[in-house]
């Protein structure tokens, strides 16, 4: 059988580089670098084809697109670090309508200076993002079966939870909020005639086929991982065999969730298929996938699908619950990008960074519409998968669970005694790095133990964060003070990461951690 490259793409809420550094105090070089690369037609490695789509759909020229994407990548890192630094005062972050101004909401005026120092615009709000998430979770339980409601999500820009209702169901939306115990001043009702549905049965990026009720259905590959590809969960139940574009045996659906907590799936392929870090734009080009750094609300985003081609737009909200005919799905990202049947499972990119896979939506690409995608990082974390990238180091969400071998002739002690070991170097005060390896790790319910050994004369803080249903990391524990930092936290199963923050000084550090 001919070996066929798999064109795929996906999204991640965690950074994909091996040693991602989020620079807080300075933006030096960000816009200048974007403008200089724009002159070449491929800013930051962005393909000319994706630039053309952004020009058509967003009205941006090469320089503007490059600047916006550079700011988006910077904003994603800064937002994650500010969430760690401001803790429960964090109210969410988003790019303003100009696509370049990062706004960060906080509930405490004392956190304003921290936000300003990071180069962002502080916004004082009444409710923290944690409080908004809690209100939205109450709606997940109370409103899942309420007729006339098509979804609800946290809107950090208005500091409220938005409930989407059909025209005759506005009162039902307010009643659902009351029954869930959500304060009326924390809720906004958005009236819409749209009825979201899964975009099933036709291909998005490269097609693949599954057997359904004696027939054959078609979906799209999302992004390549080292052992196969990720896609939408509604594109096949676990154990279903798949065939490729050429009707040759391809693989098996090893993991599938739909409806419920997500719309995510993973297909393990056989040796005849080679996962590659590219996305098919159906114009004869391959768009590169360099990593999986999650873009914030307000960022530009593009998707590929064989039914409609490549279209671009803006991320409008995260952690939306969408009521499909098959049932409610939580944790989706809402966009103003159009899509049509057959685009399901296909990839979403912000520049060359994987963002997610198409779930469903409403409208079409003639009159317009809105589309939801499943964040790719959550899929990677759920199955300990590694994204295949053009950078060669991959992006993933798994930490090893076995201890490294002890050095010959010696015994491990202190931080070295913990089984998972990571090292890094921070070159400037105010920088932060995510661990393990710029990503995150999936853990069962248990106790997280960590120890950070910072260089002499430096003050490094250690923060533990958990990925919530909105696709954002929430700080659950921190260790500060002088000397080595130790941390212990008992929590439920989920996706976690450590953030090492250089409060003062620079140099190399070592981090040991474990979950029991």
From TrEMBL:
Protease keyword on record: yes
Domain annotation Peptidase S1: ranges: 204-380
InterPro entries in the cross-refs: Pept_S1_alpha_lytic (IPR004236), Pept_S1A_streptogrisin (IPR001316), Peptidase_S1_PA (IPR009003), Peptidase_S1_PA_chymotrypsin (IPR043504), Streptogrisin_prodomain (IPR035070), Trypsin_dom (IPR001254)
Claim: Metal-binding is one of the keywords in the record: no
SUPFAM superfamilies linked to this entry: Trypsin-like serine proteases
Signal peptide: 1-28
Compositional bias (Low complexity): 398-407
Residues annotated as domain Peptidase S1A alpha-lytic prodomain: 127-183
One Pfam family it belongs to: Trypsin
Record key words, sorted: Disulfide bond, Hydrolase, Protease, Serine protease, Signal, Zymogen
Region (Disordered): 391-412
Family that this chain belongs to: Belongs to the peptidase S1 family.
Protein name, per record: Streptogrisin C
Protein source organism: Actinoplanes campanulatus
């Amino acid at each position: 059988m001919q070996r066929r490259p798999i064109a795929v793409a996906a999204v991640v809420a965690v950074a994909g580089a091996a040693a991602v550094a989020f620079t807080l105090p300075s933006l030096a070089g960000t816009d200048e670098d974007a403008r200089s690369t724009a002159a070449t037609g491929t800013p930051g490695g962005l393909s000319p084809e994706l630039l053309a789509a952004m020009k058509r759909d967003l009205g941006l020229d090469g320089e503007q697109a490059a600047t916006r994407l550079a700011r988006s990548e910077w904003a994603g890192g800064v937002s994650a670090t500010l969430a760690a630094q401001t803790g429960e005062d964090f109210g969410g972050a988003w790019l303003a309508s100009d696509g370049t101004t990062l706004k960060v909401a906080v509930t405490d005026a004392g956190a304003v200076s921290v936000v300003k120092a990071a180069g962002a615009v502080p916004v004082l709000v009444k409710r923290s993002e944690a409080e908004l998430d809690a209100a939205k979770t109450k709606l997940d339980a109370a409103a899942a079966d309420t007729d006339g409601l098509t979804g609800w999500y946290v809107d950090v820009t208005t500091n409220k939870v938005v409930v989407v209702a059909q025209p005759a169901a506005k009162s039902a939306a307010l009643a659902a909020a009351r029954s869930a115990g959500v304060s009326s001043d924390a809720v906004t009702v958005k009236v819409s005639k749209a009825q979201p549905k899964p975009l099933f049965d036709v291909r998005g990026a490269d097609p693949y086929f599954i057997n359904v009720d004696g027939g054959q259905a078609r979906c799209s590959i999302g992004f390549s991982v080292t052992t196969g590809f990720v896609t939408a969960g509604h594109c096949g139940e676990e154990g279903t065999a798949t065939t490729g574009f050429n009707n040759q045996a391809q693989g098996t659906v090893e993991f599938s969730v739909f409806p419920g907590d997500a719309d995510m799936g993973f297909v393990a392929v056989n040796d005849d298929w080679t996962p590659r870090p590219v996305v098919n734009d159906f114009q004869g080009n391959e768009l590169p996938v360099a990593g999986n750094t999650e873009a914030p609300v307000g960022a530009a985003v593009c998707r590929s699908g064989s039914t409609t081609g490549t279209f671009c737009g803006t991320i409008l909200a995260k952690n939306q619950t969408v009521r499909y005919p098959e049932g409610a799905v939580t944790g989706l990202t809402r966009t103003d990008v159009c899509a049509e049947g057959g685009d399901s499972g296909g990839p979403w990119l912000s520049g060359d960074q994987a963002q997610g896979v198409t779930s469903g939506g409403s409208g079409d690409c003639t009159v317009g519409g809105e589309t939801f995608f499943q964040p790719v990082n959550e899929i990677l974390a759920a199955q300990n998968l590694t994204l295949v990238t053009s950078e060669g180091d991959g992006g993933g969400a798994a930490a090893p669970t076995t201890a490294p071998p002890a050095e010959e002739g010696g015994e491990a002690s202190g931080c070295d005694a913990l089984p998972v070991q990571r090292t890094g170097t921070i070159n400037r005060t105010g920088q932060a790095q995510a661990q393990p390896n710029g990503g995150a790790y999936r853990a069962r319910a248990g106790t997280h133990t960590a120890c950070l050994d910072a260089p002499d004369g430096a003050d490094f803080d250690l923060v533990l964060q958990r990925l919530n249903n909105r696709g954002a990391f929430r700080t659950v524990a921190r260790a500060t003070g002088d000397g080595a930092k130790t941390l212990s936290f008992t929590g439920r199963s989920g996706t976690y990461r450590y953030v090492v923050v250089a409060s003062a000084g620079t140099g190399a550090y070592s981090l040991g951690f474990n979950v029991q």
